[in-house]
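Changelog note: in this version the structure field was regenerated for every chain. One regenerated record is shown below for reference.
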Amino acid sequence: MENLRTRAAIDDDHDFLMELFASTRSVELAMFGTDEQKRAFVSMQFSALTRCYPKAQSTIILNGQMPIGRTIIDRNSDELRLVDISLLPEYRNRRIGTFLVRQLLAESRESKIPVRLHVFKYGDAVRFYERLGFQLVEDDGSYLKMEWPQVDQKS
């Protein structure tokens, strides 16, 4: 974790962010037949993130100078919304995501407001968030609304 750092996302990161976003949607992309349909889906979903959370902070996760992932966090007076945390496939399962989410949980404890998120119901991320103490709040059929309300507990 010593080479890990973050910086604000900039316009020049667009191609990297699209590639990263697509790498996290393999289950959803499997539902589409053609590459054109897959690209359209990724583009639509990617654009929706910025439209839905216009004030969110988007950061690039770097290993040294190499971009390996990103976070999008929407900070409000009543919640910290983890909109997205993504890592390139070769950097997953190395505890990087755990490290970064625990930083957000520490911020939650300090500010005494919950961390909330939505996660694709059929993806591997559900187990990741459950391990970190997130609890199911609502199931809409495709996505789960989860919350980490234990602002006075250690992560």
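Spot check on this record: Residues 4-148 form a domain with the Aminopeptidase fold (CATH 3.40.630.30). The chain has one domain: 4-148.
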